[in-house]
């Protein structure tokens, strides 16, 4: 009796058809790091589109250099040495305060620009100074003022040394002139109306503006995205009530509120940031809300609800990535608006405390001292360069995320 045995015919898996065996994917920690930094094909195409906009691509590099330089402002412009050696002991004046009794004085801290401290340390060691030997608050008391055409000594603000050909009032004081003409002691962009170095104040002002803009944009984006996601996803009564609240809140005159709060509280970086945050988060709500209203009825969202996936998972794992394309396009322009707002408030005297390094305060000094055009020009070109770079980057981001260019 013959027994028939059925044989199972196996076909290759669809994923293997037409494919050749490639190199094995790396595993372990190294492979995980490589997969983390590896761009997906769509993001790689977006990055190529971003680089295709040469103006935006190089603006990103210039902005990155400005950001790094401004973060290193304490090392580039400071009235303290970066490193010093006194009688065989290494000192780090840029990081720590040392009492003057360490070098034979009696003051609470060492003033390294003072003649006694400078000579004492140089005789018993050495000092490595920053390229600019002024901080944003250092008053150049040793500046040899220039004479005008009538022979009178002019005070502050003083012009850059390369811009004026007037005779120095202290030209006969060889010690004072030698100190001023030493490397790092010159005022490359002149001094302001209080004798402070304009280059140092511009550098520190750029750092304050960039940090303020980045922090404000980041916090406002988080709040705005969360509010817009809740409105767009749930819709109905939640969206109706939230929209009415948003309209009332957006119509409040924040400048008058800022004036009232400034009269009660001492103005500061974080105080100003908190006040601006109260009114900045509303700008992204409409964009995110529209994207969530459009995407909440997609079939894969309906399937996720049917499978019992939580609302939070659907919102932030499935819908938010689609909404981020439109949101990211607005972020460079949000950053530009934040920096502009800080500059305007400082110009009006409603921003940072007096004496703080600020481009808006430097611009106001230029308005008050029309005979010193270097003040207004320095502030203007700094602000114009910073805002132009951000606008060019924003245009490149918009082109990179444009679906017509990404999926062509």
How would you characterize this protein structure?
With 408 residues, the protein is mainly α. It has a domain at 198-406: MetI-like fold (Orthogonal Bundle). The chain is 58% helix and 3% strand. It is built from 16 helices and three strands. The protein has helices spanning 28-37, 41-52, 54-71, 73-76, 115-124, 174-180, 198-234, 236-250, 254-264, 269-280, 285-295, 299-306, 311-348, 359-368, 373-400, 403-406; strands at 83-86, 89-91, 125-128. The protein has a three-stranded antiparallel sheet. The termini are far apart. 30% of the residues are buried.
What is the strand and helix layout of this fold?
Layout: H1 28-37, H2 41-52, H3 54-71, H4 73-76, E1 83-86, E2 89-91, H5 115-124, E3 125-128, H6 174-180, H7 198-234, H8 236-250, H9 254-264, H10 269-280, H11 285-295, H12 299-306, H13 311-348, H14 359-368, H15 373-400, H16 403-406
Features:
three-stranded antiparallel β-sheet; elongated; 16 helices; mainly alpha; disordered N terminus; 408 residues
Could you list the spans in which at least 5 consecutive residues all have pLDDT below 50? 1-24
Q: What is the top-level CATH class of the domain at 198-406?
A: Mainly Alpha
Secondary-structure element pattern, one letter each: HHHHEEHEHHHHHHHHHHH
Structural class: mainly alpha
Short structural description:
This protein is mostly helical.
């Amino acid at each position: 009796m013959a027994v028939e045995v059925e044989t199972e015919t196996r076909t290759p898996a669809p994923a293997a058809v037409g494919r050749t065996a490639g190199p094995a994917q790396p595993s372990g920690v190294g492979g995980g790091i490589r997969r983390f930094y590896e761009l997906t094909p769509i993001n790689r195409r977006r990055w190529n589109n971003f680089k295709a906009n040469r103006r935006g691509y190089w603006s990103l590099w210039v902005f990155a250099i400005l950001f790094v330089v401004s973060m290193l402002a304490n090392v580039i412009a400071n009235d303290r040495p970066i490193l010093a050696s006194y009688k065989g002991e290494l000192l780090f004046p840029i990081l720590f305060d040392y009492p003057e009794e360490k070098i034979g004085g009696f003051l609470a801290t060492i003033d390294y620009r003072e003649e006694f401290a400078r000579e004492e340390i140089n005789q018993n060691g050495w000092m490595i100074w920053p390229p600019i030997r002024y901080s944003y608050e250092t008053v150049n008391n040793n500046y040899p003022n220039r004479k005008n055409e009538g022979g009178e000594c002019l005070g502050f603000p003083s012009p850059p040394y390369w811009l004026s050909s007037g005779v120095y009032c202290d030209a006969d004081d060889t010690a004072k002139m030698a100190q001023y003409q030493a490397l790092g002691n010159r005022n490359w962009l002149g001094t302001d109306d209080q004798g402070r170095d304009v280059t140092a104040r511009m550098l520190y002002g750029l750092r304050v503006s960039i940090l303020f803009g980045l922090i404000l944009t980041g916090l406002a984006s988080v709040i705005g995205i969360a509010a817009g996601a809740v409105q767009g996803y749930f819709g109905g009564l939640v969206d109706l009530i939230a929209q009415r609240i948003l309209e009332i809140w957006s119509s409040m005159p924040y400048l008058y509120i800022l004036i009232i709060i400034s009269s009660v509280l001492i103005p500061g970086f974080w105080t100003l940031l908190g006040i601006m945050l109260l009114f900045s988060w509303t700008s992204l709500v409409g964009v995110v809300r529209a994207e969530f209203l459009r995407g909440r009825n997609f079939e894969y969202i309906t399937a996720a609800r049917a499978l019992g996936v939580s609302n939070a998972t659907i919102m932030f794992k499935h819908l938010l990535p689609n909404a981020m394309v439109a949101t990211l396009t607005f972020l460079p322009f949000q950053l530009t608006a934040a920096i502009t707002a800080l500059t305007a408030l400082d110009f009006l005297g409603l921003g940072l405390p007096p004496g703080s390094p600020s481009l808006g305060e430097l611009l106001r000094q230029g308005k008050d001292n029309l005979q010193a055009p270097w003040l207004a020009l320095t502030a203007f070109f700094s602000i114009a360069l910073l805002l132009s770079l951000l606008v060019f980057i924003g245009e490149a981001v918009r082109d990179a995320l444009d679906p017509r260019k990404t999926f062509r």
